[in-house]
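Below is how a single chain appears once it has passed through the pipeline. First comes the sequence as given, then the structure the pipeline wrote out for it. We keep one example in the README because the format questions we get most often are answered faster by looking than by reading.
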Amino acid sequence: MNPLHQLKAHGQSVWLDSIDRHFIRSGELTKQVEENEISGATLQPGMLARTSDAIDFTRPESGYDEEISAPFRRGHMPTACEKPAIADIRAAADMLRPLYEQTHGGDGYVSLQISPALADDTEKTVAEARHLWHEIDRQNLLVGIPANEAGISAMRQLVAGGISVNATLLFSQAQYEQTAEAYLDGLEQLVAQGGNPAGIASVASFRISRVDSAVDAIITGHLNQCGLIKTYNAMERESLRNLLGKAAVANARVAYARYQAIFSSPRWDALAADGARKQQLLWASTGIENLAYRDVKYIEELIGPDTVTTLSPATLAAFRDHGRVRGSLLENTENSAIVLSTLKTLRISLDDVAGKLLAEGIKQLSATYEKGKHLNASP
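Resulting structure:
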């Protein structure tokens, strides 16, 4: 059996990361949905920019007509660009709509990340999310919002207002707890106002590979300095070596254990009785950054029910070809907690790492978004 199909047998959804207009209009999205390989998709703010995971729509082959490409060649993004981009998002949502209906809202979503320039402004984030939600007008849309302080506050308001949210750029347990709390708060406010929570969905998106890259860099730095400054003894140095490549999976597995506790609590049971849906955990950035690791490591190690894994086209092809499937997410839960505890004991703070990665993530999204606004092409 196709390994992608086996993931679904384990209760995990597969979404394709960073689709573009060609993927939508060529029929490839519909094809992969019909072949039961993917059941959702994500769009980034730079989906129209010249990046490795998007396109340059100043070029004729991009599929964008003169209405869009000409203003870009003059060096700016006109307001008119929103209209065709929204048409693409609607088209993607419509292609996934049959799956959304078949699963009664359990799958078949398109997630759109809003402008990262608004990341530190709760009011503007809420206003932009509401604008996109009503303009796109598709129930199977998720509005992506960074899980920083302002974003988490915005999520609470948006869920209370009946808008489905993808909490993005999660790296730490503390971030996850705050995000889940905001979701529950929003649902409770919605119910108190007489609203129906059954139509609201949410995912909490953990970025995986970046955690290992950041922690491995710290560990390697410590090991390289040990002979000079003797900060660690021999046993501690061995412990450091044993932690290489383990932080990200351990972090995600501990978050999943917390997810299970939150969404089996009496507080959740009361919301579920009103028809509310669980906020699923989503694994993002599942492609490896360290070539020494197996190329499908982060898919194979995080397979479990009520989760979503997002794959780039390259990672999806690799997993289709040689992925190995087992119910791995529930393995070695105690060992995962030990990994995180050992990191803390060895003076490596995952909270500090997460804070830096969150800031970097917002900065990177902003840079991609700005490329989409200010592309300049040769005359």
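The longest strand covers residues 141-146.

See the next section for the split statistics.
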